[in-house]
Amino acid sequence: MNSPKSASLPVFPWDTLTDVTAIARAHRDGIVDLSVGTPVDDVAPVIRAALAAASATPGYPTTAGTPELRASIHAALQRRFGITGVDPAAVLPVIGTKELIAWLPTLLGLGSDDTVVIPELAYPTYDVGARLAGAQVLAADSLTQIGPQAPALLFLNSPSNPSGKVLGLDHLRKVVGWARERGVLIASDECYLGLAWDAAPLSVLHPSVCDGDHTGLLAIHSLSKSSSLAGYRAGFVAGDASVVAELLAVRKHAGMMVPGPIQAAMVAALDDDDHVAVQRERYAQRRAVLLSALRGAGFTVDHSEAGLYLWATRGEPCRDTVTWLAQRGILVAPGEFYGPAGAQHVRVALTATDERIAAAAERLV
Ligand SMILES: Cc1ncc(COP(=O)(O)O)c(C=O)c1O
């Protein structure tokens, strides 16, 4: 073997939390784990029934997804997010969006001559995906930082993981116009679009952003958080018909198919907005409890106007804050996982049961 591929990748960040996890676990009333952000609420009965009903199907699924799933994706984008004009052929299910993000630069054929722009504070897989393809990475939040070059791919993430920041209409329009002039492909990771609290996030495919023209635009959507389907691995991408067709062409060869029963479960999830509203309300209540508890304990909470996290600081190095919270049995993610700009913040996930969230709030008093 030449040099192992893993050598080109960063240390897996969560592996660095072993010591503080042990501290938090030692709390007499048990750990409150607000670190990874994994859903804890049961999958909705309507989705489980669809999964069970499809569980006897023995055959291979198709990479493109069933006609029912493709239609459900199309309809949900319009109904939930006001996204009109999506070419019915320009939707593609993926095995969770982490998979798509990690392999997108490779699937697009990018290499060492190409640059991938990622947000300064970002979900780590954007960087990993660029590295897997051997592409260059530039962390930049403003177009002036990018300069005259034309990167091959630019990731947007609004609402942001980790900060909960929402990009406004003017900003999105500016980036789309800039990308179009230069032929830059935009991949907009919109997995928290439905979790809006104090702001109204917009899809890059929304007509007010792109004037109904999806050329050079991809929207990436996950069912992991909106429908608590992280364990099912269910997401999709939609947008520029020629790019989606290219992704499909490569993914067919690479065996990247969403399992058939999961496709059936996705249809049920996408067709039903009630369970999404119930889940959103659970997170709204947990957010209210944690927000006031953190502020009461002297934290400043920045951004966090949407999404699944509170972006909090005590004005000290983030690892100190992580330890301080672990001593109270609360495990959170250090902001440095998401880039140097997070050095003094921690990311507090809203994903714990109501009972555990209440326990965390009590410990912060
Ligand atoms: C910004 C962002 N994008 C993508 C993902 C991946 O989600 P999944 O692979 O579960 O669809 C996550 C997961 O936390 C995320 O925070």
From TrEMBL:
Its EC number is 2.6.1.-. Its cofactor is pyridoxal 5'-phosphate. It is an enzyme of class 2 (transferase). It comes from Mycobacterium adipatum. This is Aminotransferase. Keywords: Aminotransferase, Transferase. CDD domains: AAT_like. GO terms for molecular function: pyridoxal phosphate binding; transaminase activity. Belongs to the class-I pyridoxal-phosphate-dependent aminotransferase family.
